[in-house]
Amino acid sequence: MDIVETHSSGRDAALLPRPFQKWFAEKGWQPRAHQLELLSRSTSGENMLLIAPTGAGKTLAGFLPSLTDLTRRGKIPPGSAFTGIHTLYISPLKALAVDIERNLMKPVSEMGLDISIENRTGDTPQAKRQRQKLNPPDILLTTPEQVALLLANKEAERFFKDLKYVVLDELHSLVTSKRGHLLSLGLARIRRHAPHMRTIGLSATVSDPMDLQRWLVPQNAPEGEDPVPPAGLVHVTGGAPPDITIMRTEDRIPWSGHVSTYAIPEVYEEIKRHKTTLIFVNTRFQAELLFQTLWTINEDNLPIALHHGSLDAGQRRKVEAAMAANKLRAVVATSTLDLGMDWGDVDLVVHVGAPKGASRLAQRIGRSNHRMDEPSKAILVPANRFEVMECQAALDANYLGAQDTPPVGEGALDVLAQHVLGMACAEPFDPVELYDEITSASPYATLSWEMFERVVDFVATGGYALRSYERYAKIRKTKDGRWRVSNPAVAQQYRLNLGTIVEATELNVRLVKRNAQGPAKGTVGRGGMSLGKVEEYFLEQLVQGDTFLFAGKVLRFEGIRENECLVSNAFSLDPKIPAYAGGKFPLSTYLADQVRGMLADPDRWGVLPDQVRDWLNIQLERSMLPKKDELLIETFPRGKRFFMIAYCFEGRLAHQTLGMLLTRRLERAGSHPLGFVATDYSLAVWGLNDIGAMIRTGRLSLSDLFDEDMLGDDLEAWLDESYMLKRTFRNCAVISGLIERRHPGKEKTGRQVTVSTDLIYDVLRSHEPDHILLEATRRDAASGLLDLARLGDMLARIRGHITHRDLDRVSPLAVPIMLEIGKEPVPGEAHDAVLQEAADELIAEALG
Amino acid sequence: MRYAGLEDIELMHRLALARTISGEKAATGAEEIVVNGVLAVCDPLGGLYLPETGMLVVSDLHLEKGAAFARRGMMLPPYDTIATLNILSAVITRYDPKVVVSLGDNFHDRKGSEHLPADLRSLIATMARGRDWIWINGNHDPDGTVDLPGTCTDELFYGDLVFRHEPSLISGKGEIAGHLHPSATVRRREKSVRRPCFASDGTRLLMPAFGVLAGGLDLRHRAMHGLFDREALVAHLLGRDRIYSVRYANLIG
């Protein structure tokens, strides 16, 4: 039976050229409805967004319009005029671009289509890149960075003028980052070269599809022209609902912590029961610890591997290859495995630690059983009692199909600066034309002309009020009012600095043999295995002999030689230095809301494990549980300290900011706060004075303490002395091109060109606090590190809904956060006290 | 050699301290030590004062570092020179020295002193009025200064001390040198604090870098090997408003 012929009558025949119909028929498949709808609407000129779960044939759908068009066009006869690329495919991962080339070549060669498909990534050899410019393929598969590079080139127009389709894969993950901002600006420029090109966005489910539909089309239509309607939407729902459970264990669920080691025997049993298990964790540290612990009980010697971003690329490739060949039984992985690739026959996903966001969970679970019509199987392993509730909430959310992806957000200024320089490298630009082009990109639709001018000024000379760098300007305004680059070296510098991902400075970790005799420095051997990379700041606090966990091993730090960190096997199970690195996702707003709802409603506790239910019941007896929109504050004494716990459920970042601001206010109120600690769920502040009594007697008003006005002066004052902005500033400085990226290996040859961004930050802040880069830093921090928007929303929500319980001892609900105290250092506090202590020792030594 | 960025350098404190003490004569928070028999005062602003001869020593000013970068296409803030000179002015006011010795790497590159803007030039002239000024040449600025008060030289012998930019590998007796931007890390329990420092074993002394964009190099770095008798080495760290002296062996508690 010819499925294509019988099922899809005249319409499909018209849409699909003969080779396609034949191919589908031979496979015994039929084109899916969404593939045909996308094809027909895209062909008729619409920009399109396809939202579909994994396994729905998204990739083929995205390429059908361009494949059919190319088939109808046929091969360009030799000797014709230069023809640029026909289709541009952009993916967030270069590995994905390579993967897609393989997946796409298969049907193309089976259908016998004469279409050239090539990828272009950072790994593509220089000769091939050159050839691609002279003789472009029909379809180019690439990344946002490569698009920017191609556009910053004098031949960009020639290269892009024949472009018909831009296919954007994993659009939901691209648009929310600075890479997405850069890409949106690139698209705006591409549209100028190829006004009739159409966009096709491919995305997993998102909370607000209209955001993406708008992102795909130009904004702010010129006067006299009709605005371009948002991209059309094809939304594929369904697929079998996933089979998700929460791990039940023999052992007690810990009160606090993030590592779930209590459940490892059960996780191991599940690995044994399944063919291939993917184990997702939230941080590199969790990955390391879990991997190591699994191997201590791996009596069957199952092939279990580790995969995270700091591991050596060679090792990662090996794991990926073994995975694709179904040679592994389990892989412990961080978010490096989140996106779209096909990983062999995974039949179970174990998620260790709470997923922190319902969308992330859905994405990760999608990794198992890559066929839409069969249910994916997943087990959640909460690390502590709050996480049990979070897992349950995420589980409900997944069945409901609820999504909590972040909004697209306003375009970042550092990215804009990078783009402006790139455009000057391409050709001299007219500022008004460039402004119109930039504001046609949705993240920059509301950019003011003044801000644009400041960015151009910044690119030219740094944009300082003290105008002393005119003679060194990177771009200059010519007589005809256009800006051009001053010299070719500027373009070279731009190419080296391009991109929006700023890695922390990292050193290669090399395993060497330790000479048991003398001091290791001079005697350790060379040429051992490279294990991966660690951040320099982490190594700075180590001294020789310290042990730490990395690449699944406990390692002994031997020293730093040139750009390498030398380590030896520690032959111990107990690392001395707890590696606490970033990469922890804060609890999503949506999930936080669900957890609050569950807490407030005892009817929903039936699904929770007994231990957790008992814990909540005792809390009800001893204190209370907050209603969904209420903020519960508990105060109690413990030891010689008085504690105040606020159960905000707004995620760690917002809580940290709140903690910083509250301690300032409590200081002013005379309650002598000593410190605070923040988790995803609550905030604990402690001090020498009885905060509970102060509230009871009216000396301290909670509604004043939590008033929204803390986001005014207190915030400003705190930012003035905060260390947290320095990290954000560093990223902005690199992305905007203020300072050069460090390129590994280049340090040795080049003159000494490094400079500490912390010092630049201090100098700039004390002399020109309104500088555009500081503005960019504050904006970034407000949405990222400080999570100000979320804190503001919470303060508004709880106004008039604060309930205080003054207790005589710690409450059950407070136990998890009380256990966190002392584990994490509070940043920016008491530095001179450490010095004082060390100096006192010297005095004691002198006197003693 | 690459100087690490100091996350914990509290430059803002040095800038603030320079503001609060300007005009104030009494030296608070300074630490008196002895180098090769000569009394020396380590000041938390980063200068070394020798009361017996009325000399003030500063090192590695790296003036016009921002401009040096701008010349190569990195538009660092043009405010580093004024910030450094403001701190220098505060420490000169505090000690009113007869002689100021700047120990080399006075400017970040060879073009720095020639292209120094006029207002900054006159600021230095004002500071130098009524005292001697000696510019020791450094590796960044081996050609000496242009159109500035004072004398340029590679080395200076004075009393029992010798002043040079790069520490000598042959003999360190009585040597006051810069170049290496020493800093030290103090670790107690989980916390570590890193600050620029004066480093001395009583025989020679290494000066902290004075320039606000200068960065630092840890005393444990191999470039420091062999310069000191580590048994006697003490790091005098620049704290918020005073010097903290910690024995080398006790840095990592």
Brief summary of the model shown:
Chain A is α/β, with parallel strands linked by helices and 848 residues long. Chain B is of the alpha/beta class.
What is the topological layout?
The complex is a heterodimer of chains A (848) and B (253).
Chain A: H1 3-7, H2 10-15, H3 18-27, H4 33-43, E1 48-51, H5 58-73, E2 87-90, H6 94-110, E3 117-120, H7 126-134, E4 139-142, H8 144-151, H9 156-160, E5 165-168, H10 171-175, H11 178-193, E6 198-203, H12 209-215, E7 232-235, E8 243-246, H13 264-273, E9 277-280, H14 284-296, E10 304-307, H15 313-324, E11 330-333, E12 348-352, H16 358-365, E13 377-381, H17 385-400, H18 413-426, H19 431-438, H20 449-461, E14 475-477, E15 483-485, H21 488-497, E16 506-511, H22 520-523, E17 530-535, H23 536-540, E18 547-550, E19 553-561, E20 564-569, H24 589-600, H25 610-622, E21 631-638, E22 641-647, H26 652-669, E23 673-678, E24 683-687, H27 691-696, H28 702-705, H29 713-721, H30 724-735, H31 746-749, H32 757-767, H33 772-783, H34 788-798, E25 802-806, H35 815-820, H36 831-847
Parallel strand pairs in A: 1-6, 1-7, 2-4, 2-5, 3-4, 5-6, 8-13, 9-11, 9-12, 10-11, 12-13, 16-20, 21-25
Antiparallel strand pairs in A: 14-15, 16-17, 18-19, 19-20, 21-22, 22-24, 23-24
Chain B: H1 11-21, E1 31-35, E2 38-42, E3 48-50, E4 55-58, H2 65-71, H3 80-95, E5 99-102, H4 118-128, E6 132-136, E7 151-153, E8 155-158, E9 161-164, E10 175-177, E11 182-188, E12 191-200, E13 205-206, E14 217-218, E15 234-238, E16 243-247
Parallel strand pairs in B: 4-5, 5-6, 6-7, 9-10, 10-13, 11-14
Antiparallel strand pairs in B: 1-2, 2-3, 3-4, 8-9, 11-12, 12-13, 12-15, 15-16
Helix pairs in contact in B: 1-3, 3-4
